[in-house]
Design goal:
By secondary structure, the chain is α/β, with parallel strands linked by helices. Helices cover about 30% and strands about 35% of the residues. This is Putative lipoprotein.
């Protein structure tokens, strides 16, 4: 029994001393409207994260060592909150049980980083799909943002964070400026 307790203690200490996984901050910035585009339009906002993996960056240092980097925040909740703020600023009311529904599907949110001692290359891609649905039909739209950045030396977590946030914010701006989506919601999300 003492050997079992000793083995468990050693395993626990080893786990505590193992290097912690890298994390970066995801801070999506909502694009806020100065004036309402609708009044008395309600919908329920639902979000799903359908990415195959939960990391937001893959760092390849070139020595057969590819390391995943995760976001400190829950990606789905961070993006849902940003979209909620955007639509709220346009005059929409988000409610729990509306027959009108807007579904956010996060299909991709990833920065791939390849670096050597002398330089780094980062490729960011974010792919979001929005489905605006009423009892009378639905509109499905995809929004993609990409970025490519190169720099000297190795990429820092701050560099990766900036690329990820820039691409996410690019997609949020595209959604905010989408008049087809706005008109569909304006016409059908009444009451």
């Amino acid at each position: 029994m003492k050997k079992l307790v000793l083995a468990a203690s050693i395993a626990l200490l080893a786990a505590c001393s193992a290097p912690q996984q890298q994390q970066i901050s995801l801070n999506p910035t909502a694009v806020l409207s100065n004036s309402d585009i609708v009044t008395n339009s309600k919908f329920t906002l639902v979000s799903k994260d359908v990415r195959s993996a939960q990391y937001v960056a893959l760092v390849d240092s070139g020595r057969n060592n590819i390391e995943p980097v995760h976001a400190r925040q829950n990606v789905r909740i961070a993006l849902e909150n940003a979209l909620s703020s955007q639509f709220d600023s346009q005059g929409f009311t988000i409610t729990v049980n509306s027959e009108n529904m807007l579904t956010l599907e996060i299909q991709e949110a990833l920065v791939t980083v390849t670096h050597t001692i002398m330089e780094n290359e980062m490729n960011g891609k974010v792919l979001l799909q929005l489905t605006a649905e009423t009892p009378k039909g639905k509109l499905v739209k995809s929004y993609t943002g990409t970025a490519k950045r190169t720099g000297a030396l190795s990429a820092s977590n701050e560099d990766i964070e900036q690329v990820l946030n820039d691409v996410v914010n690019l997609v949020l701006k595209e959604i905010a400026a989408d008049t087809e989506l706005q008109n569909y919601m304006k016409e059908r999300f009444n009451g």
